[in-house]
TrEMBL record:
InterPro entries the record matches: ABC_transp_permease (IPR001851)
A Pfam entry, by short name: BPD_transp_2
Location of the protein in the cell: Cell membrane
Species of provenance: Micromonospora ureilytica
Keyword field contains Cell membrane: yes
Membrane topology classification: Multi-pass membrane protein
Superkingdom to which the source organism belongs: Bacteria
Keyword Transmembrane helix annotated: yes
Entry's Gene Ontology molecular function annotations: transmembrane transporter activity
Stated name of the protein: ABC transporter permease
Length: 426
């Protein structure tokens, strides 16, 4: 038998020309900076914009003249845009982009805070940070569930359903048992139930994973909505009055200015969410389990050849993702609210966007979730100070931020190579 050597073919990198991604983003930042300096500067007032280091108007504060602040931070955004437009080393892209975005947001806030009615022209930073983390919690858990699935090669569009089933199960069984811990376990099992269906149909029966995720979301909405109307609406005291986790204060850390009251006087879901980010990050990139998970998500045939049980890894990680998302759903009903019909309201899809924005990395997903959580909290704050911006626009602000972030800031991203591709053992 003769063999034929196949020469290596060098693949030339794609030439983007002058308008690289960095320069396009720089041009966008330049436009935002001009908008900030000119428009926000003109609309701002000469009142002091106060950013208090507490959860109310009292105490120490950072103050700046509204007009001067709006123009100054607009100029900073212009400078960041000009730097990207001129061309900066690749390692400086994200830091410069971050400076530009922060400058734009601060310019906007100087306008809004200084133009607020008398007595409301302050922003309590402790409340803003605390609210950002609270609103980001379901996104953090949902995005981590997506990381676990998609790093294993299974597309998880069912995050919405996992969160919703977790919230419902936590409320129902927490109410029946009178125990937050029973509710928490039930929430984890509720999320795992949706994941089990995803795993069986996507891995065992090779159903299209995106279609299956959408079907499972509709199933969760239908089942929880039906049971809500039949049980919770008819007897809320019995079926929808779950106890709540109280806040846990961490000694010493709780006394750190600004961050202490915001982060270290929170409930169990905040601590568990941040701990899971650390654990999953270390697990994925520093352990044998993580190496096997990533190999199954990138090249399952090679992993199988080396003795990795591909299907077993996928089943296990998809179920684990459901547990994580279910706990995220419980952060609604065992800490903040009573269960209401379809209460997740699209947060699962924002979590999916955070997963993509974070480039399938637990730490990146956390930062993306905080970005979206801040957009949500900012909408709430602007409504509280009677902002001149229409309330309808404020309500869509988190979703608009999601679209802009994924479409404009992420650029080209590469999902795990085997993501969404069923594996059939030969």
């Amino acid at each position: 038998m003769s063999t034929m050597a196949v020469p290596d073919i060098a693949v030339a990198p794609v030439d983007e020309g002058f308008w690289t991604r960095s320069r396009k983003v720089g041009l966008t930042l330049l436009g935002l900076g001009l908008l900030s300096a000119v428009l926000f500067g003109a609309l701002a007032t000469d009142q002091q914009a106060r950013f208090t280091l507490s959860d109310d108007a009292a105490g120490a504060a950072l103050e700046i003249n509204g007009t001067i602040g709006a123009i100054l931070f607009g100029i900073i955004t212009i400078a960041a845009g000009a730097a990207l437009l001129a061309g900066v080393p690749k390692r400086w892209f994200l830091p410069v982009l971050g400076v530009g975005l922060v400058g734009f947001v601060l310019s906007f806030l100087c306008w809004q805070v200084s133009a607020a009615p008398a007595g409301q022209n302050f922003m309590p930073l402790v409340n803003i940070i605390r609210g950002t983390f609270i609103l980001a919690l379901p996104l953090i858990f949902g995005a981590l569930a997506g990381v676990l699935c998609e790093r294993s090669g299974v597309v998880n569009v069912a995050i919405e359903g996992q969160l919703l089933m977790g919230a419902f199960s936590g409320a129902l069984f927490g109410s029946l048992s009178g125990s937050v811990w029973v509710g928490l376990v039930a929430a984890a099992l509720g999320g795992a139930f949706i994941s089990l269906l995803l795993a069986v149909f996507a891995i065992r029966y090779l159903v299209d994973q995106v279609v299956m995720g959408i079907v499972l979301n509709l199933l969760a909405v239908g089942v929880t909505g039906f049971l809500y109307e039949r049980l919770m609406q008819t007897d809320a005291a019995k079926y929808n009055s779950a106890p709540r986790f109280s806040n846990w204060e961490i000694p010493l850390l709780k006394d750190i200015p600004v961050l202490g009251p915001a982060l270290f006087r929170g409930n169990i879901f905040l601590y568990v969410g941040l701990l899971l980010v650390l654990v999953i990050h270390i697990g994925l990139f520093r352990t044998r389990w993580g190496l096997r998970t990533r190999s199954v998500g990138e090249h399952p045939i090679a992993a199988d050849t080396l003795g990795v049980k591909v299907l077993r890894v996928r089943y296990r990680n998809v179920l684990l993702a459901g547990v994580v998302a279910g706990i995220g759903g419980a952060s609604y009903t065992l800490a903040l609210y009573s269960f209401t019909k379809n209460m997740i309201g699209g947060k699962g899809f924002i979590a999916l966007a955070a997963l993509i924005f974070g480039r399938w990395n637990p730490t990146g997903a956390l930062l993306a979730a905080l970005f979206f959580g801040f957009a949500d909290q900012l909408a709430t704050y602007l409504g509280a100070i009677s902002s001149s911006i229409p309330s309808q626009f404020l309500a869509m602000l988190p979703y608009l931020a999601t679209i802009l972030a994924v479409a404009g800031l992420v650029g080209r991203v590469r999902a795990p190579a085997a993501d969404g591709k069923p594996y059939i053992k030969g």
